[in-house]
Amino acid sequence: MAEQICAHLTECELMPSVQSAYRQGHSTESTLKKVIADILDAADHRKVTLLGLLDMSAAFDTVDHEIILRRLKVSYGIDRQALR
């Protein structure tokens, strides 16, 4: 199921370009490299840089699943059997 959803999101170009999770060739390492590059670039241009971190490890357990299912259908075109 996860492979099918990822394939659909990629095929329909619904995956954000900065998304690293669930994308082949991307990892936490590529995300960290992007963050560091952005910080260094901002420093080179004498810009203030802020980094906010949010722990989402248990986020799925606290979200209304009906909202998630509706969002998958409306925003990403995933419906019928896939939602069941």
List the helices and strands and how they pair.
Layout: H1 2-11, H2 28-44, H3 59-62, H4 65-76
Considering the chains and any ligands shown, give keywords for the structure.
84 residues; mainly alpha; 4 helices; 51% helix; 0% strand; elongated
What does this molecule look like?
This protein has 84 residues and is mainly α. It folds into 2 domains: 49 residues, no CATH class; 31 residues, no CATH class. It has 4 helices and no strands.
Strand content: under 5%
Tally of DSSP β-strands:
0
Output mean pLDDT: 86
Coarse shape: elongated
Ranges with pLDDT <50 over ≥5 residues?
none
Estimated radius of gyration: 17 Å
Which structural class should the secondary elements be placed in?
Answer: mainly alpha
Tally of separate helices: 4
Q: Biggest β-sheet, characterized?
A: none
What is the ordering of alpha helices and beta strands? HHHH
The figure for the number of domains is 2
Q: Report how far the terminal alpha carbons are from each other.
A: 11 Å
Percent helix, as a range, is: 40-55%
What is this entry, summarized?
The protein has four helices and no strands.
